[in-house]
Amino acid sequence: MIRCDWSTNNELMIYYHDTEWGVPVHDDQMLFEHLSLDCFQAGLSWQTILNKRENFRAAFDNFQIHKVASYDQKKVHKLLSDAGIIRNRLKIEAVIHNAKRVLEIQKTIGSFNSYIWSFTDGKTIHNHFQSISEIPPTSNLSDQISKDMRHKGFTFCGATIIYAFLQAIGVVNDHVISCFRYKELISV
């Protein structure tokens, strides 16, 4: 079975690639989880984040947006002492801050899902890359969404982070065309 080269490091990466990466996500809580994990990934490998994903879920109350938005400095200190997650104050505070921005979007637009998917009229962009080396770190779309999110007050949402987020949640299908998942996701 042919897979994207990046996914063959270990069973956890293979499972993520085969079942989750690039599958369209429309649940606000899952969208927020992906955005938060991509924030934590900045400067690190995705494998590091996947290895700690369950710890992140436990530490951040399963990424329940209302709960995370209500975190205070006491909770920040608790998170900073949690060896199971990435203990970076700026990233932790960004996730809390971004939860508040998601709540604002939910109030004004109705859902974070509606906001994110509005940039592509609810459709996945299926790229046609032959190899992993062709996949860019950013795109015009990630630039546009990043700029709009920063305008709305989000932090840790640069174009590279947003592009990884869009790949993860299926707004962009960046499986290489020889990967078995590419064709499966075109039919979704």
CATH architecture: Orthogonal Bundle
- Average of per-residue pLDDT values: 97
Separation, N- and C-terminal Cα atoms: 20 Å
Into which percentage range does the β-strand content fall? under 5%
Helix and strand run? HHHHHHHEHHEH
Largest sheet: 2 strands, parallel
| Number of H/I helices | 10
Please give the number of β-strands: 2
Low-confidence stretches: none
State the name of the first-level CATH class. Answer: Mainly Alpha
Q: How many domains make up the 3D coordinates?
A: 1
CATH-defined topology: Endonuclease III, domain 1
Radius of gyration in whole Å, from Cα? Answer: 16 Å
3D structure, described in words:
By secondary structure, this protein is mainly alpha-helical. The protein has a single domain, classed as Orthogonal Bundle (Endonuclease III, domain 1). The protein contains ten helices and two strands, in the order αααααααβααβα. The protein is globular and about 50 Å long. The two termini are 20 Å apart.
In short:
This protein has helices spanning 11-19, 28-41, 46-59, 65-69, 73-80, 89-109, 112-118, 140-151, 159-168, 180-186, and strands at residues 125-126, 172-173.
List keywords for this structure.
2 strands; 2% strand; 188 residues; mainly alpha; Endonuclease III, domain 1; single chain; two-stranded parallel ribbon
Helices and strands in order:
Elements: H1 11-19, H2 28-41, H3 46-59, H4 65-69, H5 73-80, H6 89-109, H7 112-118, E1 125-126, H8 140-151, H9 159-168, E2 172-173, H10 180-186
Parallel strand pairs: 1-2
Helix pairs in contact: 2-3, 2-6, 2-9, 8-9
